[in-house]
Q: What sequence folds into this?
């Protein structure tokens, strides 16, 4: 089994409980500081909200073209590669991975 990765905030009481438990169990683990990610997301902004009809929203979505992302961070702890297929399993209720 590989080292667990804790995606945490330094100030999170929940992450602190997990850090303490991992230490008590003597388990090795890696940390990803989510605060830096949150700051980058906040810098993007949230845009401006406006009311439109459902049909208009669908037209806008159909006319939109996907954009290529900037890629994967060099220091990505999961070692993801651009174009790599991944699966996601919700950790709160899901039991089956989705692709």
A:
């Amino acid at each position: 089994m590989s080292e667990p990765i804790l995606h945490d905030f330094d100030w999170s009481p929940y992450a602190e409980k997990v850090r303490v438990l991992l230490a008590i169990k003597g388990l090795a683990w890696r940390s990803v500081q989510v605060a830096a990610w949150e700051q980058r997301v906040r810098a993007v902004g949230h845009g401006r909200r406006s009311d439109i009809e459902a049909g208009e929203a669908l037209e806008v979505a159909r006319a939109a073209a996907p954009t290529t992302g900037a890629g994967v961070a060099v220091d990505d702890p999961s070692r993801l590669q651009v174009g790599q297929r991944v699966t996601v399993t919700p950790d709160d209720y899901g039991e089956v991975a989705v692709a």
User: Anything to note?
Assistant: Strands lie at 5-8, 30-33.
